[in-house]
Design goal:
Keywords: Chloroplast, Electron transport, Heme, Iron, Membrane, Metal-binding, Photosynthesis, Plastid, Thylakoid, Transmembrane, Transmembrane helix, Transport. By secondary structure, the chain is mainly α. Helix content is 72%, strand content 0%. The chain has a domain of 122 residues: Cytochrome Bc1 Complex, Chain C (Up-down Bundle), CATH 1.20.810. Helix 4 crosses helix 5 and helix 6 packs across helix 7. The chain is globular.
């Protein structure tokens, strides 16, 4: 093992990277509320893991979506546990994001030179809510269906572009298979990719600028 480690160390300088990560200065005023961002990241990773597991059984069609979820809950070993963890960690992620935004605002963490960190954080908050909206629809039960119908119908109140926006979200004039396909693609591919990108930017800026001092 020593020779293997030395081989990687010579090429990647693993120890230097580890030293840089562990030697970052933490101001004395930092308390447990400064961990909310890290908890949000943990929830996101749990979401990715459990969500990936569920994609092996979920069928994104209007005729099979609900049945596949029921199969996961009743027939798959620990399927009920995987889905429950996914559901509750999603709620936890939303709560942590809300608390994190309040903490940053109340402690002035959005002020110069951390404006871009704040902007990426707000974008991540919007993405988190989008996760909730798209994921809520995937079981395609009565609650999910009507939630999609209401949410996608909101832009219709916008003059001129309202109707085209509704049709873009739904994939057609009415809610149906095209809508479920769009929401499934958003929930499992586009939103996770965007979240990973903006989270990387967010944490790199925090790493570069450090934790802001007390008010």
């Amino acid at each position: 093992m020593g020779k293997v480690y030395d081989w990687f160390e010579e090429r990647l300088e693993i120890q230097a990277i580890a030293d840089d990560i562990t030697s970052k200065y933490v101001p004395p005023h930092v308390n447990i509320f400064y961990c909310l961002g890290g908890i949000t990241l943990t929830c996101f990773l749990v979401q990715v893991a459990t969500g990936s597991a569920m994609t092996f059984y979920y069928r994104p069609t209007v005729t099979e979506a609900f049945v596949s979820v029921q199969y996961l809950m009743t027939e798959v070993n620990f399927g009920w546990l995987i889905r429950s963890i996914h559901r509750w960690s999603a709620s936890m992620m939303v709560l942590m994001v809300i608390l994190h935004v309040f903490r940053v605002y109340l402690t002035g963490g959005f002020k110069k030179p951390r404006e871009l960190t704040w902007v990426t954080g707000v974008i991540l908050a919007v993405l988190t809510v989008s996760f909730g909206v798209t994921g809520y629809s995937l079981p395609w039960d009565q609650i999910g269906y009507w939630a999609v119908k209401i949410v996608t119908g909101v832009p219709e109140a916008i003059p001129v572009i309202g109707s085209p926006l509704v049709e873009l979200l739904r994939g057609s004039v009415s809610v149906g298979q095209s809508t479920l396909t769009r929401f499934y693609s958003l929930h499992t591919f586009i939103l996770p990719l965007l979240t990973a990108v903006f989270m990387s930017m967010h944490f790199l800026m925090i790493r570069k600028q450090g934790i802001p001092g007390p008010l």
